[in-house]
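Q: Convert this sequence to structure tokens.
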Amino acid sequence: MPRFYFHLRKSGKRVTDVDGMILPDAAAARAEAIAAARDFHQRTVGELDPDWRNCALEVCDEGGRCVFLIGFAAAARLADAAPADAPEKTAKRTLASLALGHTRNEFLYLAGQTRFLLERIGMLADRGRYETKNLSSLRKSMEENRRYAIEVLARSRQQSAELRGGESGATSRTSFVREDRL
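A:
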């Protein structure tokens, strides 16, 4: 018996059925697709949920050829024409297969995103350590420059006081120049 795959399509995206179902023929696959699409109708209201209006089930054979495509909105009309003995248990298995494939894809995507974010956190932590070291060395350098500036200011004040204190101008200038060169 052939295997049929029930792929879910919505807004240009496709959730691939990786398991498929073994069914006797394309007519049985069509009945399964109609039953699965009808499961998305709100039974109390008798309408399709607006979130699912643009969805469709694409039934493909083992070769990947599309055998049947049904929009969820059209499922109610087609269900009336479908045979009444179509089993509902297999439709639920189809939905479970679709959900399993979708969940697996979502999990793989989230695992990739998690790896990316962990790498990013590691890079940010390394950068934080580098910046901390850089700031620490800048702080030390700034403290040294501040001490040096205080020493230069103190010497300058002392020399200014000596110049005002009555020493001869030539002697003061010579000592100022000599201290500055040191």
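The first helix runs from residue 26 to 38.
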